[in-house]
Design goal:
The protein has about 100 residues and is of the alpha/beta class. The chain has helices at about 15-25, 40-45, 70-75; strands spanning about 5-10, 30-35, 50-55, 80-85, 100. The protein has one domain: Rossmann fold (3-Layer(aba) Sandwich), CATH 3.40.50.2300. Strands 2-1-3-4-5 form a five-stranded parallel beta sheet, sandwiched between helices. β3 (about 50-55), α3 (about 70-75) and β4 form a beta-alpha-beta unit.
């Protein structure tokens, strides 16, 4: 059974980014959870009321941006924000199909 308040999921392995995001969101009283695999993401989508997913674009070496359609197929209402330091990934890009955003 999930939590009653909204949850924010962070799919990342960068400890500094995790702590930065967590510290900001905890001050706003969000339940912040961290995951490191797609299976964990899927489990959280079905178990919690997710408000947004922060998605590291290169968590496992492959572009995780390709996971967005799969994640949205589970719950199309979840907002996804892709975090990327890769200069080849355009910043502030909004997907035409409203799949997510890139920061």
């Amino acid at each position: 059974m999930g939590v009653s308040r909204y949850c924010i999921l962070v799919f990342d392995n960068n400890t500094d980014q995790l702590e930065f995001i967590r510290s900001i969101l905890k001050k706003k009283d969000f339940d912040v959870r961290f995951v490191h695999t797609l299976e964990e993401v899927k489990n959280h989508i079905t178990s919690y009321r997710l408000l947004v997913i922060f998605l590291d674009n290169y968590l496992s070496g492959d572009p995780n941006i390709d996971l967005i359609p799969e994640i949205k197929s589970i719950d199309e209402n979840i907002k996804i924000i892709v975090i990327s330091a890769d200069p080849a990934v355009p910043s502030n890009k909004t997907f035409s199909d409203k799949m997510g955003f890139i920061l």
